[in-house]
Amino acid sequence: MFKQSKALKVAALALLLALNLSTAGLADEKKDKQKEKKPLPPGKAVLWEEPRDIASRDLLAGPGGARMRPDLSRLEFIKEEKGGWSKKYRVRDAAGRVWVAKLGKEAQSETAAVRLVWAVGYPSEINYLVPSVEIPGKGTFTNVRFEARPEDVKRLDEWAWMGGPFEGRRELQGLKVLMVFLNNWDTKDENNVIFHVRRRGADQLQYVISDLGATLGKTGTGSLWRLKRSRNSPKDYAEAKFIDRVENGYVRFSYAGVSTAMLDKITVADARWIGSWLARLSERQIGDAFRAANYTPEEVRIFTGAVRARIRELTTLPK
Asked: Among 35, 265, 302, 313, whose Cα sits 20 to 30 Å from the Cα of 272?
C-alpha cells in the first residue's frame, strides 16, 4: 500500500511538472509571437466604410463582383494549406490568379457570411462558392470555397477585438453585433487579419475578419455548450435565440462563442445602428447571399427568414 501511494505521488508530481513546463512553453511561444510582430506600413486604418450603394450591391457576386470569378478552365495545384478546421489547397486558375480552396462544411457558410458582412460596409475577403471542381492530383469535390489572394494585397499581422485602434467606436461595436447576428462562435483574434491595400492617393490598412466559416449554426448554451455548437445549419440558425434582454442600456445576447467578453458594453444604440444598415438590404439581396453559397431553395428560404427576423430584433430594440 505504501509503495502504491508513493508511486501515485511521484506520478502526480511528474504530471504537475509536465503541465508547468507546457504552460511555460506556451507563454514563451506567445511572447515570441508578440516579438515577431512588425510595425505596420503607412496607410489609413479602415474597419468600415459607409456603403452608399447598399441598395444596389450584388450579393450574388459578392465583393469581387463578376469580374473576379475564378477561371476554372484549368487549375494548377500549388500546395496544401496548413492550419484551421477545414482542409484547404492553394491553387492557380487559368487566368493566373491564386486562390485558397476550402473544402468541407464551412465553405457554404463562409461564402454567405462574407457577403452579408461586406454588404453593410466592412472590408472582407473575396470569395466564391464552386459547386463542383477537380483539383489536379487531389480529386473532385463539391461545394468548394475559392478565396482570392490578389497580388496587390499584402496580408499582415492579426488584429485584436479588444484594445485596438477602433476600441469603443461604433463601427467596431457594430461588427461585434454582426458576429453574434451570424452566430460566429469562433471569434479568436487569430481569425482577424490586416490587409495592406494599395490605393491611388493613399494606401489602406483594412481590418478584416479572415475566417467566417464557423457561422450560420448555433453557438451552444448550457453546461455542454462546446458540444452543442454547429456551423452551416439552416435549422439550427433559425431556431437559435439571438437577443436575451436589455439591461441598463446594454444588450445581452444569447451567445456562447469564444470571445464573450467583447460583448460586455454593446449599447442599444450600437445594436440599432448596425440593424439599420442591415434593414436596407432587400429580401432578394439577402437571399442572393445564400444562393451564392449553393444552398437549396428551401435552405435559402429558411436562412432569409431567420436573417430578417434578427434584423427586426435589432431595429425594434427599446431606445
From this structure: 302
